[in-house]
Amino acid sequence: MPIGNVNHHSPAGINPAEHTEGAETSSSGAVKPNWPTENWMHCGGRGAGPEAIRHAVLHNMQEIHQHLSTLRQQNWSAGSMEAVFDTALLPTMIQAEKAHNPENTVIFHDDIFDELGEIDTEQTRQVLMQTPQMFHYVAADIREMNGRRSVIILDSLADNPRNSIYDNPEVKDSLMSSLFPEDKVAVLCMNMQKSFYECQIFALNATTKMAKHADFMDDLHQLNLQGSDKLAERIGAGNVRALRRMVVLDAPQSLPAQFIKHAQTRSSLAQASLDIPVNKSGQTLQQRQDEKMVERTKIRTSEGQSQLQTLNFSASIEDKRLTYLERAIKYMETASASEVNALAERFNFLGKNKMIAGLASQPRVVGPAEQMNQRLMQQSGRVADGEQNSLFNQIQATIERLHES
């Protein structure tokens, strides 16, 4: 769902200005992506040696990077196809991030609650997890203290009781069966993400922040085991909901500024300390958001009437996606053959998946005003609700098969 509507639980060193080739704009205002194209390489095949497979994998990663850079340079938001890219690349980006930040011990799990009880806290702290019930990605930090387990989940979205995964009966049942009675789970809904397709990047970034602020996280775990009231007071939560074995805390305002430096809207920073540096260059939270602020347009349809809506938000998370991909490309230059082959299999699955061509032809929801106005004039900018739901189902099915490959 586009920025501006937060009812979302769905599948996210090079100058973007230097990579403007390879993406055209059609008469409907839709960016024609670089992929699939004749430049996409099959990774392997009969007789292909290890270096040939690595070459093809790196080539395709560069193709994706060029495509994402072009979208950023031309002021388009990510869409369904980029969500598929994120999923294909996520295991590789995780390994690259662990190599870049050794203190980050992040591992990936397919189901956030079914597998919590199986995670060895002696080996890991940060976990990036998928929530299959609503197809969303979150980060978790796990501690074992005095025989009790504390789990703190960072969710990039705001809490929405009308459409919350944490109210899902299947989630609650899984949680009850995976943890001991004295264990505690706290969900911190960060209210940073307003877009549909960046949750994987937000979640990966959250694991890095939790690793870098391990002492702060230790304090939160101590408070979590003592009780939700103390934890809510410490993080400045705006709202607290107790849901059987977990507590959901909305819009925490007392986290280190680095945790929210990729927040997409100004309202997300309303109570934050805006004058604290959040990166190596010394930028404050406010300065970074000002620098990354973009203006894009979407077509809003209500009661049969369509009109343009201007959106202003930070594209910082889009640049972070590019950074993670650049690190992944560098990592894959020397990665083990097994890691290269695993990504090659995911790429080959996408290359032969007929649905990808359909994703490539979908009109983009958020982009430059001129092109969106052109689409509005042609009355081609709105996808019917039924078609949109069908598209999301196809995306989810494709991504689920990617995880299985």
TrEMBL record:
<dbReference type="GO" id="GO:0016746">
    <property type="term" value="F:acyltransferase activity"/>
</dbReference>
<protein>
    <submittedName>
        <fullName>YopJ Serine/Threonine acetyltransferase</fullName>
    </submittedName>
</protein>
<comment type="similarity">
    <text>Belongs to the acetyltransferase YopJ family.</text>
</comment>
<dbReference type="Pfam" id="PF03421">
    <property type="entry name" value="Acetyltransf_14"/>
</dbReference>
<feature type="region of interest" description="Disordered">
    <location>
        <begin position="1"/>
        <end position="35"/>
    </location>
</feature>
<dbReference type="InterPro" id="IPR005083">
    <property type="entry name" value="YopJ-like"/>
</dbReference>
<keyword id="KW-0808">Transferase</keyword>
<keyword id="KW-0012">Acyltransferase</keyword>
